[in-house]
# Entry
Amino acid sequence: MLNVTSTSLSKKADIVLPCLRPGSTAFPPPDSALADPPGLLAFGGDLSLPQLLAAYRLGAFPWYSEPDPVLWWHPDPRAVILPADLHIPRSLLKWQRKQQHRVTIDHAFDKVIRHCADGSSLHRERGTWITPAMERAYTQLHSAGHAHSIEVWQDGQLVGGLYGVSMGKVFHGESMFSHCPNASSLALASLLPWLFRQGFTLFDCQVLNPHTARFGATNIPRQAFIQQLAANHDPSPVSDWCCTLREAS
# Structure
């Protein structure tokens, strides 16, 4: 989950980047990504389902703001959470024992991505980077069984959550939102142990930030990340994602 300001191509007129054709699944090699802006790999394309799947298999992901074209990124280093490094903050554990929240998976993907996009979250990440085209593309990924949402409910109301993309035994976190304190943290604290119990081996945070660092995120070199993807490309260990992670007590 990036936590930086979007780079506009209009301010970087001297950048030379590979251009992806609509529907193309042929991405440039990750080590060709730019050092400035860090990790910028390519531009263009149409966010089609085959293109997005090819990007995530490579470890790339889209992030851009209108009026820029689609920008594709592959940061080095890469922020990840490994099972051995997972840490749930003690203060969060203490807080959640006193709460009446219910946490689910894939009960309201369309609402979660809409809240992540609308900019009303207490947990602001990449501003309004989720364009209508991005929202449609990830909803299509969800319909195809690759993108999933985690929802936090309070008295029947959706108050927080996150969504990401599952590829093999790797889960790529994308965005989160909170409409009440700690709701997105509760979503992450509920999801991570569950993923690792199911057999997932890596949670991709994309770029390190203080929020994910609280949960044990660390930086690894790009080549180590690519090796992790190659070693964990097997089919997802989860066949039915729709479930409840935490009941309101």
